[in-house]
Specification:
heterodimer, A: 705 residues, alpha+beta, five-stranded mixed β-sheet, four-stranded antiparallel β-sheet, 9 strands, 7% strand, B: 255 residues, alpha/beta, Rossmann fold, six-stranded mixed β-sheet, 9 helices, globular
Chain lengths: 705, 255
């Protein structure tokens, strides 16, 4: 009997459930899709680096899913409470008929079970379908080759989804039962018939609050876009403008309803046209009672746009950078001893034996090792590195205590210290000869540079440093290097690098004429090379061999980390995978925030329509046309949906400037395409919720009171 | 005087073949321009059904209703809404004011729905508010008003558009006797001063005694008609009581 009643109830109120249902289905689908990524990735042929990162991804997603489950759980409980309110009269009827509260709770439990099962099934089906599309995205993001289409189904993700949603639904049923248990008949009967008291806000107060809110917002915007430097000292400083932004958002929405009404009611021709006066009043009432929700929704939308855009951008620019930043297969890096550092290396106390005392090291061998370049080190151990290499360039970096970063910066030093207090300005600065640079640049496929006598150039591709170098050059800072007086050869630093890397991180390197340097000050030997192999698989094999050899050489050397290396495959795998991970997490969080925000707004708008049902009835009675009433409703809901979106958009413009600066520090930047994709996804989902809300509301207000 | 409303052999059935209820059973009458007419009857006598048919909220099963010579039973869709908006004014038992709007805005809304030019709205609202003595509460919200004030605001909203016919369904039903008296006196004044045609449904003899003419309905038929003529309101009231006693049933219980 109860089951029958529950089924009939659901069928009858199916459209009330549409927002609830959509939210459940989308939530379940997203939960499944992201938890299934691990299974999908297991079908891809990936390197060990990528496999490691995939393990990391799956762990992070597992942890994140707990958080997401909490968010979705809270959302579903909220939505179900909304439905309870909607049906309070029905429950009152049951009670007056003498039905026990436990039976009513039973009906509710049964309904939740049915709805839960149906949406779980629908959500899983949708999730499984979408995750097939996702698997191509996964393959593309990890830049793996997907030779054939494989239908993937993750049993693990499926079970996990069922488990989590079973728990959520149990909480929903429990909360509904508590609500029924606490309900009073009289309260249930009266729902919707209580007259609303209109609290008009004092227009002067509104203007003041609006001004204060705007002022706080402007200050917060300035903080994130201008006084950034402090953020690099203490990252938690960013929380201050975010908190200010949240407070300002609240104040603006709080004052907006009164303010807009105050302004618009002065434009009599607009205000007194058709149903406009009703529409504006209704809207201002809505915004008044929904200030907190609208604020939350606005912030959620802001988070969605920022997270998604940042995630997409990071991936895009990482991948774009990789191609540019890894022009050769491998680049070795060997530390050498200069005339100044040699004695430090030869100091016995540097070497500690197993007994805690100085190791008795063969000084001659150490000295020899400290002056060999990469190839010599290999051949000294009887290994022929060059046989693996098709072409290579060996260059040196020179350093001296007499020329550190502070000397290289000259007068600009103080400005850099103020803006970036964490920079170590007393580190010896890298110097390279123009001959060396041009040889490595040729191998890298980059433009060679020319240098006159007694001139120098700066090589830099780390965006935040470029303006400082520019100033150094414009000020015609004179360098004293190895007894030569050098002048800048150009007004701009040369954009470039010498080491392989995943990001633009060359903070500055001084290029001087070949005759300036003293060979006794060679601090590093760089060997950039391409493998003597064409095929990707063979290259990976070659790389494995080379890395193994390098390990052997390092183990044989007295200073065990003497040779370092960066390889194209390694950097690419790491950053492609990292990019993919960031994208996934961004998408996951973004989607959930988006759905939460949109669902809360939709439910609020619907419950408002229910509360205002008799107002629309009155309008029809005094002769307003259905067409006009629909238009009034559409306008109200459009403003309601657009308001948080617009403010979130403004927040995002400034938020993204901040993200841009952060990403630049990481050597990447915001990509317009990613921003557009994000906005498109956002508008689509938000639009679906808006459409459903409008449709349902239109039906609700057509009901007789 | 010219005839404004003509109700000709109107019938209204509810239900299906197996159980048919005749709410209106061949009712006919006319209302002249500028008349203040009351319709009385017990619960279930069909008076509200009659009002709903005249106001085009409900459709007749048979017969014709002519307003100013136009058959309103033949109207459909937008024409119906337009007719209701342009030619009729409604006053309800439970006021039906929009709680989000001030008294002024409630009245003005009726004009703006009619697409009245903005410049004409304020003077019209002021004038009718003066007639109904509600000028000092115009900027208040419905929840700040007493029942009598609310009903006068609702009446102002019905009258401000200068409809051909004002339909009032138990306008005093939710009011205390003092407020009811005040409202009905205003109706009488407006009827005289504005030459407004008012058709009021009530089961309260006191309220009905303010009208110039009373139609009594029983079981969906016209049962009796009283015209006040030169009678004082008190004499007219006594005549009404006599008819009501004769009618018997619920109506006498209600008194």
């Amino acid at each position: 009997m109860l089951c029958k009643l529950s089924l009939k109830n659901i069928r009858r109120s199916i459209r009330d459930y549409s927002v609830y249902f959509i939210t459940l289905v989308l939530g379940i689908a997203i939960f499944y899709i992201f938890n299934a990524i691990n299974t999908q990735a297991s079908f891809l042929v990936v390197s060990t680096v990528t496999a490691d990162i995939l393990r990391l991804l799956s762990e992070v997603i597992t942890g994140l899913s707990v958080f997401i489950a909490f968010v979705l759980g809270a959302l579903i409980v909220y939505a179900s409470r909304f439905l309870m309110k909607r049906r309070s009269r029905e429950f009152a009827l049951y009670m007056t008929l003498g039905m026990r509260k436990s039976s009513i709770a039973g009906i509710l439990g049964m309904e939740s079970l049915i709805i839960g099962l149906v949406s779980l099934a629908a959500g899983l089906v949708l999730g499984i379908i979408l995750s097939q599309i996702m698997s191509t995205v996964v393959a593309q993001l990890f830049e793996a080759n997907m030779t054939e289409f494989v239908f993937t189904f993750s049993r693990e993700a499926c079970l996990k989804t069922i488990l989590y949603f079973a728990v959520i639904m149990a909480v929903v049923v429990l909360s509904d039962m508590i609500l029924v248990g606490k309900s009073r008949l009289i309260r249930l009967m009266q729902t919707g018939s209580r007259a609303e008291k209109v609290r008009m806000k004092n227009p002067v107060v509104c203007v003041l609050v609006f001004a204060v809110g705007t002022a706080i917002l402007v200050v917060a915007y300035r903080m994130v876009t201008q006084s950034l430097s402090s953020i690099f000292v203490a990252p938690q400083v960013i929380l201050i403008p975010i908190a200010m932004g949240a407070v300002a958002t609240f104040l603006i929405f709080w004052s907006l309803s009164g303010l807009l009404l105050g302004i618009i009611s002065r434009f009599k021709t607009v205000y007194w046209k058709g149903l406009n006066s009703f529409t504006f009043r209704q809207l201002s009432g809505r915004v008044n009672t929904m200030v907190i929700s609208i604020t939350i929704i606005c912030l959620m939308l802001f988070l969605t746009i920022s997270i998604m855009t940042a995630a997409f951008s990071m991936r895009d620019s990482l991948n774009k950078n990789i191609r540019e930043l890894t022009p050769v297969d491998i680049q070795f890096d060997k530390t050498l001893a200069t005339a100044e550092t040699e004695k430090l290396y030869l100091d016995d106390s540097m070497f500690v034996g197993p007994d805690g005392k100085g190791k008795n090291i063969p000084k001659e061998q150490l000295q020899k090792e400290l002056h060999q370049d990469v190839l010599e080190t290999f051949s000294d151990k009887g290994l022929d590195l060059s046989s693996f290499l098709e072409e290579y360039v060996s260059v040196y970096i020179y350093q001296t205590d007499a020329f550190d970063l502070s000397a290289a910066l000259g007068d600009v030093r103080q400005k850099l210290v103020t803006d970036h207090p964490s920079v170590q300005i007393y580190n010896n600065h890298d110097i390279m000869t123009v001959g060396d640079y041009n040889r490595i640049a040729e191998l890298y496929g980059r433009e060679p540079v020319t240098l006159g006598e007694n001139e120098y150039l700066i090589l830099c591709d780390y965006e935040p440093m470029i303006p400082f170098w520019k100033e150094v050059l414009e000020k015609e800072t004179v360098y004293q290097i190895f007894g030569h007086e050098l002048h800048p050869a150009a007004l701009d630093p040369v954009y470039g690098f010498v080491r392989l890397s995943s990001i633009h991180e060359n903070t500055g390197l001084v290029i001087v004429s070949d005759d300036v340097v003293d060979p006794a000050y060679r601090a590093k030997n760089l060997l950039a090379a391409n493998y003597a192999a064409q095929d990707e698989a063979v290259r990976r094999e070659t790389e494995g061999k080379i890395i193994e050899l390098t390990r052997q050489v390092n183990a044989d050397c007295l200073i065990t980390t003497v040779i370092g290396y960066n390889t194209r495959i390694d950097i690419r795998d790491t950053s492609v995978s990292l990019g993919a991970v960031v994208t996934f997490l961004g998408l996951y969080l973004g989607f959930v925030f988006l759905i939460s925000g949109a669902a809360i707004l939709a439910l609020k708008a619907l419950s408002d329509s229910i509360d205002s049902k008799n107002r629309y009835h009155m309008l029809r009675q005094i002769g307003a046309e259905d067409k006009e009433i629909d238009r009034s409703l559409l306008r109200q809901q459009m403003v309601l949906f657009l308001m948080p979106l617009v403010l979130a958009g403004i927040h995002t413009i400034f938020g993204l400037r901040f993200s841009q600066l952060i990403l630049e520090q990481m050597g990447t930047g915001i990509q317009t395409v990613s921003l557009l994709i994000t906005i498109l996804i956002l508008l689509l989902i938000y639009g679906i919720y808006f459409f459903i809300t409008y449709r349902s509301s239109r039906k609700i207000i057509k009901e007789t009171v | 005087m010219e005839t404004l409303l003509q109700v000709k052999d109107v019938e209204k059935y509810y239900g299906n073949k197996s159980s048919l209820t005749k709410a209106l059973d061949g009712i006919s009458f006319t209302v002249e321009q500028g008349e203040f007419t009351a319709i009385m009857g017990a619960s279930g006598s069909g008076k509200t059904t009659l009002l709903n048919c005249i106001s085009t909220i409900d459709r007749v099963s048979a017969g014709q209703i002519l307003l100013d010579g136009k058959d309103v039973t033949a109207l459909k869709g937008d024409a119906l809404t337009k007719f209701r908006r342009e030619e009729l004014g409604f006053i309800f038992q439970d006021f039906n004011l929009l709680d989000t709007l001030t008294a002024y805005e409630n009245i003005a809304l009726a004009l703006s729905i009619k697409k009245t030019p903005v410049s004409e709205i304020a003077p019209k609202v002021r004038e009718i508010a003066g007639q109904l003595q509600i000028e000092d509460v115009l900027n208040k919200y419905p929840y700040q008003l007493s029942g009598g004030q609310k009903q006068r605001v609702a009446s102002a909203r019905a009258l401000v558009t200068e409809p051909k016919l004002v339909l009032a369904d138990e306008p005093t039903g939710a009011l205390d006797s003092k407020s009811a008296k005040m409202l009905l006196e205003r109706f009488s004044d407006l009827n005289v001063l504005w030459n407004a045609t008012i058709l009021m449904v009530t089961h309260d003899s006191f309220s009905a005694s303010y009208a110039k003419r009373i139609l009594f309905i029983k079981d969906g038929r016209l049962f009796h008609e009283l015209v006040r003529g030169g009678d004082s309101r008190k004499d007219f009231f006594n005549k009404i009581i006599d008819v009501v006693t004769l009618l018997g049933g619920d109506l006498s219980d209600a008194l």
